[in-house]
Amino acid sequence: MERKKIATVWLGGCSGCHMSLLDIDERILDLVKMADIVKSPIVDGKDFPDVDIALVEGSVTSDEHWNEIKHIRKHSKILIALGDCAVMTNVTGMRNYFPLQDVMDTAYLNAISNDGEGKAPNHPALLKLNDKVVPLQEVVNVDVVLPGCPPDADTIFYVLMELLNDRQPNLSEVKKLKYG
Ligand code: SF4
Fold first, then answer.
1. Is this prediction's pTM over 0.90?
2. Measuring from atom 5 of ligand 1, which residue has the nearest CA?
3. DSSP 132-152
4. List of domains in the chain
5. Exposure class string for 93-110: b at 16+ Cβ within 10 A, else e
6. For a pocket test of ligand 1, which of 14, 20, 92 has the largest count of ligand atoms closer than 8 A to its C-beta?
7. Residues lining ligand 1, CB < 6 A?
8. Contact 25, 153 (CB under 8 A)
């Protein structure tokens, strides 16, 4: 069987979903027997290559994210929404209840921990946040949803192995495997 290519991507999330992915521990050896992880926050390389599976953590918070997820979709056969922020905006989307400027002022100017010297960051390398956070499926088609905050390592591993073996994952199978 031809080796497949996997990418993992971190948009507007807290990295907790990626930490959960790392919790598959030694089972990573089973994964790398079948696939190469060609792009991730810890694998170097600027361009997003053509991949079989892309796992995307987090929601879309900026125009940069919008363009990035469009590009990822174009270059991925299967796109997995990794975690609740990806499909419900969840924690990342909590700021949607308030005007963006109020959120920025609260974070950088008016926070209790602020000594009065704070100012909002304004570096060109930083993302320019959009008014609203949106989930992936408002921008691109999502093939598989991996729910949870974060999804647990067993579920991530199960879904990846099913897809690598050209099977459609059935999340109710994970519960059976875990709880009998
Ligand atoms: S789903 Fe939870 S763990 Fe994953 S990025 Fe969002 S807040 Fe973090």
1. yes
2. 13
3. EEE-GGGTS--SEEE-SSSPP
4. 4-94+131-179 (3.40.50.700)
5. bebeeeeeeeebeeeeee
6. 14
7. 13-14, 16-17, 57-58, 83-85, 90-91, 149-150
8. yes
Query: Which residue, chain included where needed, has tokens 């971190």?
Result: 10
Which atom of ligand 1 is the closest one to the Cα of 91? 7
Extract the tokens encoding 178.
Answer: 């875990």
Minimal-distance CA residue to ligand 1 atom 7: 91
Q: How far apart are CA 167 and CA 162, in angstroms?
A: 5
From first to last of its 180 residues, what are the pLDDT tens digits of the chain? 789 999 999 999 999 999 999 999 999 999 999 999 999 987 766 789 999 999 999 999 999 999 999 999 999 999 999 999 999 999 999 999 999 999 988 888 887 776 666 777 778 888 899 999 999 999 999 999 999 999 999 999 999 999 999 999 998 877 676 665
